[in-house]
């Protein structure tokens, strides 16, 4: 497959790119600064942004999937991922590509009838802007036209460069409830998250849906 990956130099994006390349897929890595990317062996680099509608339309021609691994919160220019959803959906419709989003954990519920993690008193104030922004993206995806196929993968509560983890090749999935282990912890390593993400690209099981992954 030909995969166009925005945010290819970040924590999640770089691991998704590596996993996809290891399976023989072609990856077009997109970032504002592509200097960290080494082209070759299936990887090509394009400098660009999700907020350039003409660029998104052009770079996704002939692609199988449009993957987004960028922050949800407002960036230096004040724009956030939510603002790009209409253009992403338009490019997906025009070019027949599937959208895949690296999402957030905070929009998952803490229990079947409980609140979202974001809405619990314990949720850290410092993360609310990013978490809330990603929750808005999920809501917006659910409103795009029915002929736009997408998936949104929420990681576990502990996920990121501060806790990269080690590759195990194992993961569990959930629909709307945060997964925890027998000790009550919710975590997923970067490489195992990437495995789950690329598995969904290769064998779609969550069309126009969010799912979560954790150990």
Automatic annotation (TrEMBL):
User: What PANTHER family does this protein map onto?
Assistant: FLAVIN REDUCTASE (NADPH)
Signal sequence bounds: none
**What name appears for this protein in its UniProt entry?**
NAD(P)-dependent oxidoreductase
Transmembrane ranges, per UniProt, are none
Q: Which residues form the NAD(P)-binding domain?
A: 7-176
* Cross-referenced SUPFAM superfamilies: NAD(P)-binding Rossmann-fold domains
Source taxonomy: Bacteria, Bacillati, Actinomycetota, Actinomycetes, Streptosporangiales
Q: Which organism is it from?
A: Streptomonospora arabica
């Amino acid at each position: 497959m030909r995969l166009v990956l925005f945010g290819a130099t970040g924590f999640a994006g770089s691991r998704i790119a590596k996993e996809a390349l290891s399976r023989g897929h072609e990856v077009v890595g997109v970032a504002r600064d592509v200097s960290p990317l080494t082209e070759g062996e299936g990887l090509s680099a394009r400098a660009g942004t999700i907020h350039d509608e003409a660029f998104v339309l052009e770079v996704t021609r002939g692609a199988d999937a449009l993957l987004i691994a960028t922050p949800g919160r407002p960036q230096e220019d004040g724009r956030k991922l939510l603002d790009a959803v209409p253009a992403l959906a338009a490019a997906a419709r025009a070019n027949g590509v599937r959208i895949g989003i690296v999402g957030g954990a905070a929009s998952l519920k803490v229990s079947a009838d409980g609140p979202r993690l974001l809405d619990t008193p314990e949720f850290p104030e410092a993360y609310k802007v990013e978490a809330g922004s990603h929750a808005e993206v999920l809501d917006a995806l659910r409103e795009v036209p029915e002929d736009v196929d997408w998936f949104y993968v929420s990681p576990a509560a502990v996920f990121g460069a501060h806790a990269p983890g080690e590759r195990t090749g194992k993961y569990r999935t959930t629909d709307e409830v945060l997964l925890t282990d027998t000790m009550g912890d919710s975590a997923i390593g970067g490489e195992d998250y990437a495995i789950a993400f690329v598995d969904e690209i290769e064998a779609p099981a969550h069309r126009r849906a969010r799912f979560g992954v954790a150990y």
